[in-house]
C-alpha cells in the first residue's frame, strides 16, 4: 500500500524571507490552500502567495492550528505552517506531528537561528545544551525571596547551566538576553560566565555581541536574537556530604543543623532519584534540603522554615551553592503545603509542634513508592511519630545513630560523642491505597 501523501508542510524560514527558501519550499507555498504563521513570518511570504490562499495568523491562537489544517484537508487542500529556522528544534513541528500523525506532516527545515549564531561566532556546537524561553513573559528571577519554582520561564536555562558549561538559548522579546543575565547574576553566577548575543540574523543589520560579562549583558539588544552562555572552570565540590562548618548557621550553635553523619544516612533513607520532588519541613540552615537538591538535580526541593533567622541562613547557603532547584518558604508548616506538588520524598527535621498533623498530611500526599524520613532527639517526639504511623497503618522502621568524632587531647586524640538521633523512615502501606 503506498504511503499517504502529507497534507501539511511545516516550513522553516529565516528573516531573509523568500530569497532564502528552496525551490521545493516555494512550490509548496505557491500551491497551498492555507498558509499559517506568526505575523512576522507571514509578512515575509505574503506578496508571493496566490490571491485565493487563505492566511491564518497563529499569534495567540496556537491551539487552533491543527483545526485549521484539518479543515483544509477536508476540502482537499494542503496547508503550510511557517516556523522560524528548524521547526523540529523547539518549534511547532513536534506538536503537529503528535496531533496529526507523522504520515500527515512534511518538514522542510531552514537552518536554525542557533546554527547561524554558532557559524557567525565560530563556535562548534555539538557540546551545547539547547533550551528555550521563547514564550510568555517570565518575569524577573527572584531566587532568594520566596524562591523560584519550575514554573518560571527562565528555570530551564538556569538549571541547564548548573548541569552544562555551555548552553544555547532561544529567546523572546519579553525574555531577552538582559533578563537572562540578571537571572544568572541572581542565581549566584559571576565572572565565570560569559554571554554572546547574535541579533537580527540573516538581516541587513545583523549584529554580534560576543563574550559579554553578565553585568555587561544586562542591557537591551536588538530583537530577534539568540544567546550562547559559556561557564568556565569546573566546580570542585562534592555532590553531598559537606562539613557542618560549610553551612552558615545560627550562632551560638544550638544544634540547628543536621550533622553530617545523620544527614548522610537520612539522605540515603530518602531514596532520592535524579528527578525527585522533595519536601523539607523545618529546614533550619537548609543542609538536608540543599544536599537533596544536588542529588535530585533534575527535580526540585520545596522547603519551609518558621524561624526568620534560620530561613535567612538557608537562603544564604542556597545562594552559595547556586541551588536554583530549591524553593524556601518562610512560615509554619503545614500552612502553604497545599500548594506544593506531591512529593517523592519528604524530610521532617522540625515540626513546630504539629508533628502528628504533618505525618498524616505527608502520608496522604506522598507518592506510592515515596518515603518519609524524620529525625528525633527527644523520646516524646519519637513516641508520637511511631504512634501516628502505626495508627495510619504505615510501614515504618527506626534506626538509632550515635556517632563520635575524634578530638585532640594533648598530643593524642579522643572520641567525643554526639547526641544519639533516631532516624524514622516510613512508607505508605499499599493495602491502604
Report the CATH topology name of the largest domain.
Rossmann fold
Q: Give the low-pLDDT segments.
A: none
CATH class of the largest domain: Alpha Beta
Q: How far do the termini sit from each other? A: 49 Å
Question: Mean pLDDT score, rounded?
Answer: 93
Describe the global form: elongated
The helix-and-strand class reads alpha/beta
Task: Specify the CATH architecture of the largest domain.
Answer: 3-Layer(aba) Sandwich
What Rg do the Cα atoms give?
27 Å
CATH homologous superfamily classification of the largest domain: Vaccinia Virus protein VP39
**Percent of residues in helices:** 25-40%
Name the beta content range. 15-25%
Largest sheet: 7 strands, mixed
- How many individual β-strands? 19
Give descriptors for this structure.
five-stranded parallel sheet, 433 residues, Methyltransferase, Cobalt-precorrin-4 Transmethylase, Domain 2, alpha/beta, 19 strands, Rossmann fold, seven-stranded mixed sheet, 3 domains, 13 helices, single chain, Cobalt-precorrin-4 Transmethylase, domain 1
Amino acid at each position: 500500500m503506498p504511503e499517504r501523501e502529507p497534507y501539511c508542510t511545516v516550513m522553516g524560514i529565516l528573516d531573509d524571507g523568500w530569497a532564502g527558501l528552496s525551490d521545493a519550499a516555494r512550490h509548496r507555498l505557491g500551491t497551498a490552500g492555507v498558509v499559517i504563521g506568526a505575523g512576522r513570518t507571514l509578512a515575509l511570504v505574503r506578496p508571493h502567495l496566490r490571491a485565493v490562499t487563505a492566511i491564518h495568523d497563529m499569534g495567540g491562537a496556537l491551539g487552533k492550528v491543527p483545526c485549521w489544517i484539518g479543515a483544509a484537508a477536508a476540502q482537499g487542500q494542503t496547508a503550510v505552517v511557517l516556523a522560524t529556522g528548524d521547526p523540529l528544534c523547539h518549534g511547532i513541528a513536534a506538536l503537529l506531528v503528535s496531533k496529526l500523525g507523522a504520515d500527515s506532516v512534511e518538514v522542510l527545515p531552514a537552518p536554525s537561528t542557533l546554527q547561524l549564531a554558532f557559524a557567525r561566532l565560530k563556535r562548534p556546537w555539538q557540546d551545547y545544551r539547547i533550551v528555550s524561553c521563547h514564550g510568555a513573559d517570565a518575569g524577573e528571577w527572584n531566587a532568594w525571596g520566596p524562591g523560584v519554582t519550575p514554573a518560571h520561564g527562565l528555570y530551564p536555562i538556569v538549571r541547564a547551566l548548573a548541569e552544562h558549561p555551555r548552553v544555547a538559548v532561544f529567546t523572546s522579546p519579553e525574555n531577552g538576553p538582559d533578563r537572562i543575565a540578571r537571572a544568572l547574576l541572581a542565581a549566584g553566577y559571576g565572572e565565570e560566565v560569559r554571554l554572546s548575543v547574535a541579533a537580527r540574523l540573516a538581516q541587513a543589520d545583523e549584529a554580534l555581541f560576543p563574550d559579554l560579562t553578565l553585568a555587561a549583558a544586562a542591557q537591551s539588544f536588538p530583537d530577534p536574537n539568540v544567546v550562547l552562555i559559556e561557564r568556565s572552570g569546573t566546580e570542585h565540590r562534592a555532590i553531598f556530604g559537606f562539613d557542618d562548618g560549610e553551612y552558615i548557621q545560627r550562632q551560638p550553635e544550638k544544634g540547628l543543623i543536621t550533622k553530617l553523619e545523620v544527614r548522610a544516612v537520612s539522605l540515603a533513607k530518602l531514596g532520592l532519584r535524579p528527578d525527585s520532588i522533595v519536601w523539607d519541613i523545618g529546614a533550619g540552615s537548609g543542609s538536608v534540603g540543599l544536599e537533596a537538591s544536588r542529588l535530585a538535580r533534575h527535580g526540585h526541593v520545596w522547603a519551609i522554615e518558621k524561624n526568620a533567622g534560620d530561613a535567612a541562613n538557608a537562603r544564604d547557603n542556597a545562594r552559595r551553592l547556586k541551588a536554583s532547584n530549591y524553593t524556601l518558604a518562610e512560615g509554619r508548616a503545614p500552612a502553604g503545603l497545599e500548594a506544593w506538588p506531591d512529593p517523592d520524598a519528604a524530610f521532617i527535621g522540625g515540626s513546630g509542634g504539629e508533628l502528628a498533623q504533618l505525618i498524616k498530611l505527608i502520608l496522604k500526599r506522598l507518592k506510592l513508592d515515596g518515603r518519609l524520613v524524620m529525625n528525633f532527639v527527644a523520646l516524646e517526639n519519637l513516641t508520637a511519630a511511631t504512634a501516628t504511623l502505626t495508627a495510619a497503618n504505615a510501614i515504618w522502621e527506626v534506626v538509632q545513630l550515635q556517632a563520635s568524632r575524634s578530638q585532640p587531647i594533648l598530643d593524642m586524640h579522643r572520641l567525643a560523642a554526639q547526641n544519639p538521633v533516631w532516624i524514622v523512615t516510613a512508607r505508605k502501606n499499599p493495602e491502604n491505597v
